[in-house]
Amino acid sequence: MSQDTIFGRILRGEIPCDQVYADEHCLAFRDVTPQAPVHVLVIPREPIPQLSEAQAEHQNLLGHLLLVAAKVAKQEGLQDFRTVINSGADAGQTVFHLHVHVIGGRPLAWPPG
């Protein structure tokens, strides 16, 4: 369950994070294993395990997460950046609490892997 993940523990204040943004709907913090000079995770406070489990009632929250991702990228000085949402283990999701990766600060290749 999403509340029992490391992100749930971060949201509850049990594990510290390098916070870069917070509001009533989400929290953004630096990834502890960054894949680029800037690698921030934006997570909803509501525990949605993965994007494929989001429902119609999450529409505003999902839009908010992307707007926050863009805001964080700008705050971090990025003009060009990548947002990634992995949904499911085969897609590379390792923490089952929905999160948006904001990655930038170097040229990013495609396909990503």
Automatic annotation (TrEMBL):
What GO molecular function annotation could you give as one example from this UniProt entry?
Answer: catalytic activity
Which one Pfam family would you cite for this protein? Answer: HIT
Q: What InterPro entries does UniProt report for this protein, alphabetically?
A: Histidine_triad_CS, Histidine_triad_HIT, HIT-like, HIT-like_sf
- Which top-level group of life is the source organism from? Bacteria
Q: Which residues form the active site?
A: H99
Residues forming the motif Histidine triad motif are 97-101
Location of the HIT domain = 6-113
Gene3D superfamilies assigned: HIT-like
Identify this protein by name: Histidine triad nucleotide-binding protein
Q: Which organism is it from?
A: Cyanobium usitatum str. Tous
